[in-house]
Amino acid sequence: MKKLLLICFLLFFSQITPAQNLVPNPSFEDTVVCPDNSAEIEYATGWINFGITPDYFNVCSTSPFVSVPNNWAGYQLPASGNAYAGLYTKELPNINVRDYISIKLSDTLHVNTAYYISFKASMGLGGVLKPNCATNKLGALFTTYPFYYDGNPPNAHYYVKNFAHIFTDQLINDTIGWTVISDSLVADSAYQYIVLGNFFVDSLTASLKYFDNGYSECASYYFIDDVYVGESPDAVNEINNENLLSFQYSENLISIEIHSIYSYRKNTEVIIYNLLGKSVFFQTFDYTNIKVNINNLLKGMYIVYIQNADIIYSKKIIK
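Above: the chain's sequence. Below: its structure in token form.
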């Protein structure tokens, strides 16, 4: 009987535990040291500067330039955790100048295997840097080797080569929320690195200027968070679902807010499972600002499962 219960639990837990993410530090939380200036993406453990001056922002920083949420590229709360990266996707009058960030994957991609990729981006606007443009073409490129792009020929021609494995044609202009960029690919090489940025020349990159920043025609800058590469499309769906709700918890309370455009959706089920796969809480809510008192739960790890007509979401919590 115990063996049967263990098998059932393992099957259950495998379904609600997020699939393996091949990106080692996906939300930039792990730090070598807190950033205190620009161009310090290497202070986020594992991340590498593949071109020009990408930045690292963390709440631990005491510098007003790279702090969170206020910094020199504007104002932004993290999509999750306490940190994110930042990079230029276009900076005129300099031709084809943009930043690139990269990280070595925890496992080499297997040829002829399907992978799902997702990351979040939010537009920087104003601040000391005065980014003033929205652009498209932000995406991800996979490589088998590290490189450094300095913006000068022949590097500009070689790396800004109008190709990325995934990218968006959408002008990303949300300065408050986070836009999810996601797609899939079948690996055609044993890729070891994911690189994020704009890999298309200026003439193929659409832009929309919001104001004259006084020092360039168009400076486009984006914050980056929550990077995912893996074999499960469900993990990408979970990342997308995070745009549909806000989730916070403390020792005694879980707070869930269904975003306003989905406020007409009722009958949101909230279930909490313990590590034995047993439901310790279940309730259906017909409103969008949900509070769940967990003061009576014992110390330990739990899975919170949320579902309605639009959302399927699970979150690990430790009480």
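Residues 108 and 192 are 5 Å apart (CA to CA).
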